[in-house]
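FORM 7B: Structural annotation worksheet

SECTION A. Query
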Amino acid sequence: MSIKGQHVVPNGSKWSVRRTGATRASGTFATRQEAISKAKDLARAQRTELYIHGADGRIRERDSYSGEAMQRKD
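SECTION B. Predicted structure
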């Protein structure tokens, strides 16, 4: 079972935000930082995980915006 979340993934020379298990991107951005910003907003709103992939496609960073994790951050 995979944990639901938002993934920032390389897409050619651009970066995309994709929900876990989705075939289509929620959005495609010119820079990695723009994609991260959008993915953080979505992860916070949905109280899910955020996975930031490197240019090679491997997960480089992870953050949690689940209800329990958000209480610890406040």
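SECTION C. Observations
The chain has one domain: 5-66. The mean pLDDT is 89.

SECTION D. Sign-off
Analyst initials: ____
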